[in-house]
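quick one before i forget lol
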Amino acid sequence: MRTLAGVEDEEKWLAEGIAGIQHNAFFMHRALDANNLREVLKYSALMLSELRTSKLSPQKYYDLYMRAFDQLRQLEIFFKDESRHGLPVVDLYELVQHAGNILPRMYLLCTVGSVYIKSKQAPSKDVLKDLVEMCRGVQHPIRGLFLRSYLAQVSRDKLPEIGSDYEGDANTVIDAVEFVLQNFTEMNKLWVRIQHQGPGTVREKQEKERNELRDLVGKNLHVLGQIEGVDLEMYKETVLPRVLEQVVNCKDKLAQYYLMECIIQVFPDEYHLQTLEALLAACTQLMPTVDTKIVLTQLMDRLSNYAASSPDVLHEFLQVEAFAKLSNAIGKVIDTQLEMPIVGAMTLFVSLLTFTLRVHPDRLDYVDQVLGACVVKLSSVPKLEDARAMKQVVALLSAPLEKYSDIVTALTLSNYPRVMDHLDDGTNKVMAMLIIQSIMKNDSCISTADKVEVLFELIKGLIKDLDGTNVEELDEEDFQEEQNSVARLIHMLDNEEPEEMLKIIYVVRKHLMTGGPQRLPFTVPPLVFSAVRLVRQLEAQGGDIAGEDVPATLRKIFQILNQTIEALSSVPCPELALRLYLQCAEAASDCDLEPVAYEFFTQAFILYEEEIADSKAQVTAIHLIVGTLQRINVFGVENRDTLTHKATGYSARLLKKPDQCRAVYACSHLFWVDDPEGIKDGERVLLCLRRALRIANAAQQMVNATRGSSGPVTLFVEILNKYLYFFEKGNPHITPSDIQSLIELINTEMLSDNGNTTIHSDPFFSSTLRYIRFQKQKGGLMGEKYDLIKL
């Protein structure tokens, strides 16, 4: 049993060992120079006796071993030259076996054995077999491992593999494989035995030391992977069964994990594919404490990369039924390893899905099968709370999106939404955002109501409050980003068939109406515009379309629009609702549906009267109403008079005089539409402008009363520009004298402003006057009209 000591003691023992090697190496070299074989063997045996120590850790023992190894290389050169020592290599091989201690004897025997094989005086397989058998004489784990490592090293270039100098009638590649397998088996037994050395209190230290030694064992598998002549048949019939037998039977967690990892990394991918069943069977027989998920994940990654390397190999996967075997093996591992954490199972499913998407991208049933197995596992857990497992589930759900670049494909997977149901609310939103980003990135169009239904079930975490969540607790910036993403998504839902598009609108509306007051202002507008787009599409196709399920009629769509905007106006969000009502009114006008357009205007006026109280919002709303009404030409005389009367009345009742003035002169456009069929009531235009002028004059007087000066003349100049506009359009009630009087009024107001004697100092007014002069100089009919205005 190797004694336990502190670092200082170990350093001292190492120094003593190195000193012993150097001392005896000095006399060995002197004997080499003198070609004194007896002295060479004596001092080399004494030098190698330093490796008999049990006091050093593997790392320190390696340092000592390398000092001796350097000397053995000099010794091998001496043994090769028979003229120096005078003995045939056969006799030398017998002679070194008389060394007193087993460890120096075996090192010398391996060194001479290497020379013996190279001399070809005996079949290499006999010498190798003799050496590997005699090495059993050293059963101390660390000393035995390093001895066998030395044997593997000196024999590597002397194996009878195909193409080597040692291949012949008596030597075949099978002999080389047999030698390496036997050496591997013995080394693995020694390596595993270390864990049974010493009391249980030092188990952690032993595990660390075993980790340091594992490469000595693994090198044998590397050699097996490099031997020329190990074809698939030999690998399947001889190599793999022997290696797996050792792996399974050793019953050691560290050895099983490391050796399975070596097998996967060392041997070719095509070998793994053809022996997949044996590999997977071994995985299911590993100790429960072995992290099998990493082993299986590495195997699937290797096979996935192999499949991606060339399309020509894909048929091999089908021949061996790789997916079915992997799926069954993973199921067995998850079922038998009851203590496997949920994150381990999810990692396996992610690897299996990645493998499936690479090897069988066209088999959606395979993809759905993996997702279904994931659902079964998740259903066995009361609640998924492990953040790492949640991350793996997100990776599982993201894989099909990345592979297919088309959410439509993912929507056909029946188990996809069932997996999402197991995510917590926060992760559900993250996944929903990933889905929307995938749609935006790939410019995917969702064109059927059924797929829209599935999609909105997937992103329900964004469009309604899930159980136990409160919108008020969410970060406002994040919430806005989420809802804007949903709004963009709605624009990606489209179908050229009006009947199907109407079904889509019904589905979207059903989901959006559950969103609550905070979400509707974001999600209702895109829905309204989608419906309006459908209205214009129907109008372009000649009107209503009678479908089998849901007839796409204009009135039905406008009813949906009215109900949808009504829900928004009750949020309350009156300014947005008013804008949408006006959009719908304009669409109804384009469809020549006067009663519908009138109803939308009525709703807009009701909102204005009852809900919009802020003065700035009222100003904006009035200008929107006036602008929309001016563009609409569907109304008869009675309805138009009613609406224009309302608009001008509300304009005159705004709080601030400047706002009143601007709204009233804007109403003048309601009575003069620059269109061949548009209304042209010049008298009412003049009435509006005169009314605006009176309001501007009142505003000027109020400023004069409160500030002691008449203030700027901007309102008068704006009205002057309206006069000029209608004058140019040919309104007979706007005369040059009216314009000239207004110019004189503005000049008077400017002169009276604090006794200012500079006329035309207002830039807006100066620009207007320059425009009048330009028109005068321009000539023609317009120039003649403007000549009547005297400046």
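fyi Confidence is low (pLDDT under 50) at residues 1-5.
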